[in-house]
Amino acid sequence: MLKVENVNKSFGGLTAVAGVSLDLADNQVTGLVGPNGSGKSTLFHIITGFYRADSGWVLFRDKPIQDLPPAAISRLGLIRTFQQTRVLPFLSVRDNLLAVAPDQLGENILPVFFRPRAIGRQERDNRRRAGEVLQLMKLDHLADRPAEELSYGQERLLELGRVLMCRPKLVLLDEPTSGVNPTLIRQIVQLIRKLQVEGMRFFLVEHNMPLVAELCERVLVMDAGRLIFDGAPEAAQRDPAVIEAYLGKNREAS
Amino acid sequence: MYFLQLAINGIIAGSMYALFAVGLTMVYGVFRFINFAHGELIALGAYAALLFASPPLSVPLVWAIAPAVACTVCAGLLQHRLVFQPLRHGSRISLLIASIGLSYLLRNAIQFGFGSDLLSYDLGLITGYEWGPIIITRMQLAMLATAVVFLSFLYWLFTRTMLGKALRAVADNMELAGIMGIPLRRVNLTVWILASAFAAAGGILLAVDTSLEPMMGVINLLKAFAAVLLGGPGNVWGALIGGVLIGLAENLSVAILSPGYKDFIAFAVILIMLLVRPGGIFSSQEGMR
Amino acid sequence: MDYLLHIVISTLIYAIFAMSLNLELGYAGLYNFGHIAFFGIGAYTSALLALAGLPVAAAMAAAMAVAGVAGAGLAFTVLRLTGDYFGIATLAFGEMMRLLFINERWLTKGPMGIPGIPRPALPGEAPADLLHYMLFTLAATVLVFLALYRLEASPFGRALKVVREDEYVAQAFGKSLLSLKVRCVVVGSAIAGLAGALWAHYVTYISPNDFTLQGTIIVLLCVVLGGKGSPGGPLLGACLVVLFQECLRFLPIPGDLGRYVAPLQGMLFGLILVLLMLKRPAGLIAEFRRKQGA
User: Fold this and answer.
1) pTM of the model
2) Closest-CA distance of chain C to residue B270, Å
């Protein structure tokens, strides 16, 4: 599914990612953890095309994507969310979902004038799907409200909903539960589990360790740009290198 | 030798552009936006000097410079206080449109007061010095001297005073600087005072060398921006070098292109720089993905 | 009666020009401060072709095409830039075009301009008079309005707004930034070219002085005042601006003070722009109704 081979990225003198290699194979839900500044988000940016790696390969379903722009990568079925919520505040909740639907014929100029019926059909299909997604997210009662009225947790749900509209093969979630209350966390976890069953794969960055242990069958740990652990969550909690990475940071701070 | 004369003219004009560019880049560095109305500060300085030097006041031009600069500084501070300060939390496009509107307002105010014809200061013949085939007028020497004085002052300010250090801190990260206790208000005012003063002085000198017309603000804004781009936005010394380079390029180009295209050079530089090295010639930032 | 026709034609042409800028600025968030350049390119192209013998309608169509191509050229060059930089780059482009109009005498006759631009021919071979030209312009305006309305309400328009509001989200969901922006600018430039062509055949004499930064600012005012990002905004803005200009004409100003009118008007326009940004940046017809969803 996703292979990263020896990827490096530096900014000026600062090395953000150093020689990271991983292979998600057929894992359903993989976690990526590590102390702040370890390079997790940078790695995500590299995988999804927002940064260009200095060297190394990224392969998505055996296709090299490290030189592709983010939009192209997204069209291949690799969808991501961001650390901060990025709903479009002025669009309605429903329109947030409609706007991101993939392969819209109506986004090309000529069809708008010459193939209005086909576009109308697509819009209806997308609206139906948006309705389903809204029900899944339990946001249907807010469908026509502007998205700026949503609470933070609801924004997170809407973002997941947007991801779903794209029917992705692999979903990269950047801290999906940070700042979210426990009830909503449960809802998100259930959602991920449900989608897992339907064939979606997840790769998520998280700081909530119990959550990671619960959801992920495999976890990768980064520290200072390097991958220092790759295995089961329980083993990660006992691994000396991992403990050192987290505690070492604390020791430096004090 | 012809080229040498052109080069000298270029460096001297460039020193004026350097003054404009330094002001523009300082405002950008601290406030993070391009002040489209910066050009009008240049024009205001020149026209204010004309106002003082003409009847009924008829002050000799040399003495008109200081009050003209003072007026322009007031204008710059008003710009900040009335328009840019209230908008700093708004959207970028609001700021952009407001500054364009402001520039249009000021430009038309100048046209209202002075008409749209080409004007010039009443100076009589300017004598010059000759070294062989090279001629340098006294005015040109004055321009160079002024630029050197102003920029040396700036250097001293930046490196030897607390205010200068504060300025650099604020340019780096305004929020953090404020939290650290740096007097933001004083720094912000300083930036506008410096930018306006430099613009006015440069504007007056440039107008002595050439002429005054209402569009001079826009034209020089674009040249200043080209210089800012060359040096890297926010980089004060880069803007200096950029200004001189633009002046050189413009004047040397006269040897190849028709003089009507002189202004074209700066515009072309803008486009080229934005495409190739938006961070300036000294940076490694490539054109965007 | 003639006077009324003049006002209507002016308003219609401003409206078309404003609608084209609204597509770029209001929908895609592209601050194209050199937009007047495409107006000028359209004007010169249509004028020169018509004077060379082409029927006016064909000349106008060609003008749109040339303006559109020029727009594509600018787009590919500067569209990777963001915000302020794009604004200044397009401003520079506008000025470059003006210099070209002035200096390329062999093509544009330089500062002397091009006189004697023909009106379109009526079916009876006679050139259209003011009334018929007004109807012609009206038809063009209605067509442009309908076409843009369709486009802006379509997924294309929606995608442009996404690009405007959050480029990261747009990219993360498969919207190709460059492709969308380029297409938007090409359409905007072509329509601006149409406005320019219509204007050239209306005033029958053009010169480089007609295509300055001032033109961009006036059309910017139309868009911003009327309400950017809404289909009707530019229309309203154009009406208001023309109305204002005409009202000024009627004020009893003694003859020798006449030269103050234009700069005074300019000052007022600049002031309105600043005040709008300070007090009501959305303009008169707001893009989003706050109470209900968009």
Assistant:
1) 0.87
2) 7
Q: What secondary structure, in 3-state letters, does C101-138 show?
A: HHHCHHHHCHHHCECCCCCCECCCCCECCHHHHHHHHH
pLDDT digits (tens, 9 = 90+) for C226-253: 988 888 899 999 999 998 888 877 777 6
pLDDT digits (tens, 9 = 90+) for C280-291: 888 888 776 543
Q: Is residue B289 part of a domain?
A: no
Beta bridge partners, A227, equal A222
Phi, psi of C9 (to 5 degrees): -60, -45
**Using CB atoms and an 8 Å cut-off, which of residues 189-218 of chain B contact chain C?**
218
Residue B94 lies in a domain: yes
Residues 6+ apart with CB under 8 A from B264: B257, C96, C99
Burial of B117 (0-12, 13-18, 19+ CB in 10 A): exposed
Residue bearing the bigger pLDDT, C260 or C217:
C217
Tell me the domains of chain A and their CATH numbers.
Answer: 12-79+177-254 (3.40.50.300), 83-167 (3.40.50.300)
C278 inside 8 A of chain A by CB: no
Asked if B221 and B36 touch (Cβ cutoff 8 Å), the reply is yes
Q: How many residues are there in chain A?
A: 254
Residue corresponding to tokens 């987290």: A246
Give A198's Cβ-side CA count (13 Å radius).
11
CB B105 within 8 A of CB C271: yes
Average pLDDT taken over every residue of chain A: 86
Q: How many independent structural domains does chain B possess?
A: 1
In a domain, B283, yes or no: no
d(C-alpha C281, C-alpha B98), whole Å: 10
Task: Tell me if chain A has a CB within 8 Å of the CB of C153.
Answer: no
Which position has the token pair 């690799």?
A78
Question: C174 touching A, CB under 8 A?
Answer: yes
pLDDT in tens, B40-89: 999 999 999 988 888 777 778 788 888 999 999 999 999 999 998 888 88
Is the complex ipTM higher than 0.95? no
**A9 CB-near residues (< 8 Å, 6+ apart):** A15, A16, A17, A39, A42, A46, A51, A53, A54
| Residues C227/C282, Cβ–Cβ less than 8 Å | yes
